[in-house]
């Protein structure tokens, strides 16, 4: 049973032959009938992948009334056994799995909540929909734009509730601020700028394949990605910085701010065109995603500019200095800044925003959080997708903006800062205020080679 034969047997929304697969089983995922949930029934939850963000999933569901975690799944047996022991100590014993397909055979599981690496998100979500489960899938919802649309199609076909892990959508502070700016209180929006100024150190460089510990099923970890030797020091987390499994910080942290920026703009489609400038600077390691990147989404009403900065301002990249000397823009480091005709709005966190007039005087501020997991559970009970604050199509579109930005970057070629500057003069003239391109100018000032992409066109 080879990897391609396996994926053919799974028929990912009728089109999985386009993906490579894994060789761990000679069967497609089963499709048990979904359980009808009554208003007073306990919702039975399984969490898949929890070496990082997934631990928050577990804690989030434990605090919700009427929800019980009944199963855990992770390909790392040490992680799996440790978390199962914690739950047992809290009086919540669970069944454990390393293979999610075996978990999906259980007809008494109502929902799957997953925080696996990005390359597993789509396949797992589609399988869960086919098996009659509702899904909470972390951001980005997919590893590429095509996969995201398959989750949307599977959710529609099988009538499932699918929530995206962009929790800002549930926070009243942000919901009220976005409604306020949509009401025209600052006039026409001229530019939305997303920021991911988050320090990222080198992941190191190996001279040969890294051995996989016996307690990790590496074939299952690879799943729908190529089953290649591990060419980095760490298996966990550092997968973000290799395109074969991750999407860089644009699709890791940046998806949150990309989603907020698109939400503010009110756009329901991908941008008609996108270009990206960037590179991986400051160190030479096994990562191939940029740690410095600017993406321009050419929406007609107002552009969306996104910037990733992974390096501190200090020249000394010592461990103790990382994170203590990061830049900010108008007080935001990981956030969104919206320029309007009558002022601007700064969104510096997941649940707060501040509005300023043209003179820079504060007009109003908002701050209030909420429980995104609770919103998902409420929609599972109501069976209304409209009750979801981050329904899967919203998650797909925002994730795809990250993907098209990365596609544009990958299609590009290495050019000198001067050559890039000359080409940008004839590209897009942003409708932003004076100084709309300071980030690009500062990058070019270093005189280092930078990747400037070709144009890439988006589509639904």
Coarse morphology: globular
Strand content: 15-25%
* Structural category: alpha/beta
Structural domain tally: 2
For the sheet with most strands, the description reads:
10 strands, mixed
CATH architecture of the largest domain, please? 2-Layer Sandwich
Quote the distance from N terminus to C terminus.
Answer: 34 Å
Tally of DSSP helical segments: 14
**Topology pattern, helix = H, strand = E:** HEHEHEHEHEHEHEHHHEEEEEEEHHEHHE
CATH class of the largest domain: Alpha Beta
Question: How would you characterize this protein structure?
Answer:
It is a single chain. A hairpin with a 4-residue loop joins strand 13 and strand 14 (362-367). The chain is globular, with a radius of gyration of 22 Å. The two termini are 34 Å apart. It has helices at residues 3-10, 54-62, 77-89, 100-103, 118-130, 145-158, 172-182, 218-222, 248-251, 254-265, 372-382, 392-411, 417-425, 438-444, and strands at 43-48, 67-73, 95-97, 111-114, 134-137, 162-164, 189-197, 274-279, 292-297, 304-309, 334-340, 343-347, 352-357, 362-367, 413-415, 450-452. The protein folds into two domains: 3-168, NAD(P)-binding Rossmann-like Domain (Rossmann fold, 3-Layer(aba) Sandwich), CATH 3.40.50.720; 171-229 and 238-368 and 392-452, 2-Layer Sandwich (Dihydrodipicolinate Reductase, domain 2), CATH 3.30.360. Mean pLDDT is 87; it is low at 1-27, 430-449 and 452-460. A ten-stranded mixed beta sheet has the order 14-13-12-11-7-10-9-8-16-15, with helices on both faces. Strands 3-2-1-4-5-6 form a six-stranded parallel beta sheet, with helices on both faces. It is an alpha/beta fold. The protein is 30% helix and 18% strand.
């Amino acid at each position: 049973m080879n990897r391609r034969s396996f994926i053919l047997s799974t028929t990912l929304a009728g089109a999985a032959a386009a993906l490579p697969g894994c060789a761990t089983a000679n069967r497609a995922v089963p499709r048990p009938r979904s359980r009808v949930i009554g208003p007073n029934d306990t919702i039975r939850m399984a969490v898949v992948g929890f070496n990082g963000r997934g631990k928050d999933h577990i804690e989030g569901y434990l605090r919700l009334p009427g929800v019980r975690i009944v199963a855990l799944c992770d390909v790392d047996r040490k992680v799996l056994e440790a978390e199962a022991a914690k739950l047992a100590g809290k009086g919540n014993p669970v069944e454990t799995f390393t293979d999610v397909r075996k978990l999906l055979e259980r007809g008494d599981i109502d929902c799957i909540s997953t925080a696996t690496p990005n390359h597993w998100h789509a396949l797992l979500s589609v399988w869960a929909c086919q098996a009659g489960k509702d899904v909470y899938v972390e951001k980005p919802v997919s590893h590429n734009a095509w996969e995201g649309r398959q989750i949307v199609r599977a959710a529609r076909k099988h009538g499932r509730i699918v929530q995206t892990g962009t929790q800002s959508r549930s926070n009243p502070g942000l919901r009220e601020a976005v409604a306020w700016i949509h009401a025209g209180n600052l006039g026409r929006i001229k530019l939305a700028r997303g920021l991911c100024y988050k320090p990222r150190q080198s992941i190191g460089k190996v001279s040969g394949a890294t051995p996989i510990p016996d307690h990790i099923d590496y074939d299952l970890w690879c799943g729908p990605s190529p089953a290649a030797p591990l060419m980095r020091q760490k298996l966990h987390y550092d997968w973000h910085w290799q395109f074969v499994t991750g999407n860089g910080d644009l699709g890791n942290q940046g998806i949150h701010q990309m989603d907020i920026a698109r939400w503010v703009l009110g756009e329901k489609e991908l941008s008609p065109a996108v270009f990206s400038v960037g590179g991986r600077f400051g160190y030479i390691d096994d990562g191939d995603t940029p740690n410095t990147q600017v993406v321009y989404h050419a929406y007609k009403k107002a552009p969306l500019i996104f910037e990733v900065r992974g390096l501190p301002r200090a020249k000394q990249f010592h461990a103790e200095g990382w994170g203590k000397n990061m830049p900010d823009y108008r007080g935001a480091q990981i956030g969104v800044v919206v320029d309007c005709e009558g002022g601007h709005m700064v969104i510096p966190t997941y649940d707060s925003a501040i509005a300023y007039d043209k003179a820079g005087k504060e007009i109003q501020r908002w701050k209030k959080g909420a429980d995104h997991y609770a919103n998902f559970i409420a929609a599972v009970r109501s069976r209304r997708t409209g009750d979801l604050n981050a329904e899967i199509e919203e998650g797909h579109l925002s994730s795809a903006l990250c993907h098209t930005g990365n596609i544009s970057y990958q299609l590009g070629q290495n050019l000198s800062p001067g050559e890039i500057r000359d080409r940008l003069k004839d590209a897009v003239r942003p409708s932003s205020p004076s100084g709309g391109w300071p980030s690009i100018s500062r990058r070019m000032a270093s005189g280092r080679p930078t990747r400037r992409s070709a144009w890439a066109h988006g589509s639904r």
